[in-house]
Amino acid sequence: MNDKSAKKYEIIAQHIIEKIENKEWKEGDIIPTVRELAKLYNVSPQTANKATAHLVGLGILSSRQGSGSIIKKQDFHKDNTYIAMLIDKARSSYIHGINSAMGYHAKEIYLAYLHAMEQVDESAKLIIYDKNDKSIKDTSLFENVEGLLIQGTLPSCYLDFIRKNDIPTVVINKTVQKANEGRIGSVFMDYYGLEQLCTYLASLGHNKIIYAFSNEFELTEVYQRRLSIIENSLQKTFTNNNFTLYKFNFSKDDYKDGEKLKELHNNGYNAMLCYNDITALRAYDLLHQLQIRIPEEMSVTGFDDLFMAEIAAPPLTTVKIDRTQLLNDSMDLLKELIATKQSSYPIKETKTELILRRSCWKSMN
């Protein structure tokens, strides 16, 4: 058979593969007969037969004499590559059945990752690391990795390895310093919802506000970034700078922190902007112990819109971040990085939204 017909059979074979990958034809389906394929693609029956024989050889089709070939179960990723997610040890506790605030807070991201991999019939792999690692103990974990998603603060040894081996990577809600090599993107939550929340509290008359953080969590760049957004938003709202923002880091069982919160309340602080929803619910508990009523005597807000925020008493005003969308945006950016062959450090944002519930009230001051 000449080169021209060989090129045609390869085109036909690729079209069949695309139909299977796009789920137009599924496992167990019978594809058109050789004669039907020849008519469909305007080629000779010999060329159509060569296309099906080629796919039989690849294990994609099973031949049936005279009645069309059957689609077999197969994996189109012949090189067995996959997209892995790296999670730091503190955030992985939920996987191992250990209850912790950080583990619960992080679980939605890696559950969204596992669901996304299942949806596209891709293999999923979670690689757990310690943020204090000085070296990578087992580099074989990265064999056949096509791309990486990272949740948590990545040690420099991993970042150096990723750059050196040119592994396309997306870091979720963290900044990565640009370098001359590497394909590493970042996806951040935008802070439109948080800016709206600051404006909302100001509209209720609150100008003495507490920025609360539970010590169950790590102080990272995310904490500082949110603090900067809050400060900037309040400065824009109070053009005469007639506001006070107090940074309050507390532990749930430390009575001294309770005493400090009581002192702040007595000094006119009657709104709490909490780092996240779990911090807000810890603040609920502390305020209940101090017999400070929510929202009449203290407005409380969160960030995340976890399920428990809606069923809290009172339901929590918060900023919603759709973590499934955050993961999808990360996957889209990763695909772009996989497709490019040049060093690149792109940034993308996922939208947030203010959710008003019943945990805020007009300032009584």
Largest sheet, order of strands side by side?
Answer: 4-3-5-6-7-13
Outline the biggest β-sheet: 6 strands, parallel
User: How many independent structural domains?
Assistant: 3
- How are helices and strands ordered from N to C? HHHEEEHEEHEEHEHEHEHEHEHEE
Q: Would you count the extended β strands for me?
A: 14
Strand content: 15-25%
- For this structure, what is the CATH class of the largest domain? Alpha Beta
CATH superfamily of the largest domain: Response regulator
Q: What is the CATH third-level topology name of the largest domain? A: Rossmann fold
Outline? elongated
The CATH architecture assignment of the largest domain turns out to be: 3-Layer(aba) Sandwich
Task: Explain how this protein is built.
- This protein has helices at 3-21, 34-41, 45-57, 101-119, 156-164, 192-203, 221-237, 255-266, 277-289, 307-311, 323-339; strands spanning 61-62, 70-71, 82-88, 124-129, 145-151, 169-172, 184-189, 208-214, 244-250, 271-274, 299-301, 318-321, 347-350, 352-355.
- The strands form four sheets. The protein has a six-stranded parallel beta sheet with strand order 4-3-5-6-7-13, covered by helices on one side.
- The protein has eleven helices and 14 strands.
- Helix 2 crosses helix 3 (45-57) and helix 6 crosses helix 7.
- The protein is of the alpha/beta class and 365 residues long.
- Residues 1-6 have low confidence and may be disordered.
- The protein is elongated, with a radius of gyration of 27 Å.
- It has three domains: 3-71, Arc Repressor Mutant, subunit A; 82-190 and 324-351, Rossmann fold (3-Layer(aba) Sandwich); 192-322, Rossmann fold.
